[in-house]
Amino acid sequence: MVTDKNNNSILNNELQISPLWIKKKVVCKLLDISLNQLRKISLADESFPKPLKSGPARQAGVYYDYQEILEWHKKQLTLR
Q1: CA dist., res. 14 & res. 41, Å (int)
Q2: In the chain, N or C: fewer CB atoms in 10 Å?
Q3: Residue of 43, 45, 40 lying closest to 72 (CA atoms)
Q4: Is 66 in a helix, a strand, or coil?
């Protein structure tokens, strides 16, 4: 396996990038919703991406996978 200077693996001239995690506030800005609306959507919609914790502690940050949020949003647009 070949890696670049940032330890990202390169396979067949394609850069393999690790998932991009974004904070809840960024998700809200992307979807143009409030934090309360985000909470309601995540509870009501089973297809909404699950939050990811940055550690085991209760106070660990909560993030969402950027690509999963984009895919969910595209799916919502096609359902309308």
Answers
A1: 35
A2: C
A3: 45
A4: helix
Question: Residue 6's pLDDT is what?
Answer: 56
In degrees, to the nearest 5, what angle opens at C-alpha 26 toward C-alphas 25 and 29?
90
Residues written for the chain: 80
pTM of the model: 0.74
- Tokens 């085991």 -> residue: 56
- List pLDDT tens digits, range 13-57: 566 677 899 999 999 999 999 999 999 999 999 999 999 999 999
Burial 2-26 (b: 16+ CB within 10 A, else e): eeeeeeeeeeeeeeeeeeeeeebee
Place of tokens 């940055």: 54
What are the CA-CA distances from residue 43 to residues 4, 59, 74 (Å)? 40, 20, 19
